[in-house]
């Protein structure tokens, strides 16, 4: 194999951090494709490449914007790894969805894994994850995946957890907005994948466009954007109670 292609959608950066940490275990030149704000040129890989696809889970699915972009990426019998990252609730049909997208586009998935990171909205949930135990499991997963890809002759279909038809994703009513710390630097305006933050008043958020990805919060140098209000506080308490039990990574391999 010639190159390792990291293809990820990562608004709040957790998915990027996990996939980049995993990539250090693979002795190939790395080419990153951050598709969070779209792609400028078509991505087409060959049989000699090795691809790792990664996405966060939003309400049990791959974010719609991410799915649309992933569907444009083409392989040619290219071995691939599928990864999703979620905030300790469940990944539902997201792993299956991303596996199906890659398979239909000429990729040959050898493995898939669902991993846990701090929740992007309710940040007290899974706050310290991925922890050392998670990192060890990610390391083992990617090493085994690379070995399977090197062996070649991928004839089996990868089986993962999930259902079809995929679950209907629910809408997230909580939207972030700016605080008094905002100095109108414009970082969030430029970074928002759906252009939901007006340049003339970046404290505001277009609630119709925003899909609560938390990218603006993750990238704001002033820490001036956040989820807030009584609805958020009530939801945070209820959500934390529902997901207090620790979830562990789940991995799947072709054999």
Automatic annotation (TrEMBL):
Signal peptide: none annotated. Keywords: 4Fe-4S, Iron, Iron-sulfur, Metal-binding. InterPro entries: 4Fe4S_Fe-S-bd, 4Fe4S_Fe_S_CS, Flavoprotein-like_sf, PSI_iron-sulfur_center. One of its GO terms (molecular function) is metal ion binding. Residues 170-202, 206-230 form the 4Fe-4S ferredoxin-type domain. It holds the Pfam family Fer4_9. Gene3D superfamilies: 3.30.70.20, 3.40.50.360. The keyword Glycosyltransferase does not apply. This is 4Fe-4S ferredoxin iron-sulfur binding domain protein. It comes from Elusimicrobium minutum (strain Pei191).
């Amino acid at each position: 194999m010639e190159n390792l292609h990291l293809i990820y959608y990562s608004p709040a950066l957790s998915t990027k951090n996990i996939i980049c940490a995993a990539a250090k275990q693979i002795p190939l030149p790395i080419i990153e494709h951050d598709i969070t704000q779209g792609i400028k040129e078509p991505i087409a890989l060959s049989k000699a490449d090795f691809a790792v696809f990664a996405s966060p889970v939003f309400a049990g699915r791959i974010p719609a914007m991410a799915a649309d972009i992933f569907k444009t990426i083409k392989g040619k019998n290219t071995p691939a790894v599928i990864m999703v990252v979620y905030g300790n609730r469940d990944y539902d049909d997201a792993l299956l969805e991303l596996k199906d997208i890659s398979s239909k586009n000429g990729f040959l998935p050898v493995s898939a894994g669902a991993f846990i990171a701090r929740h992007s909205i309710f940040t007290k949930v899974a706050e310290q994850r991925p922890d050392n135990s998670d990192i060890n499991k990610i390391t083992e997963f990617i090493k085994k995946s690379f070995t399977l890809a090197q062996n070649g002759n991928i004839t089996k279909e990868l089986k993962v957890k999930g259902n079809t038809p995929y679950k209907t994703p629910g809408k997230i009513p909580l939207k972030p907005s700016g605080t008094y710390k905002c100095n109108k630097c414009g970082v969030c305006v430029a970074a928002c994948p759906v252009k939901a933050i007006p340049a003339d008043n970046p404290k505001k958020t277009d609630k119709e466009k925003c899909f609560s990805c938390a990218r603006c919060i993750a990238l704001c140098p002033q820490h001036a954007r956040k989820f807030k209000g009584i609805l958020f506080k009530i939801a945070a308490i209820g959500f934390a109670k529902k997901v207090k039990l620790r979830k562990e990574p789940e991995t799947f391999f072709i054999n």
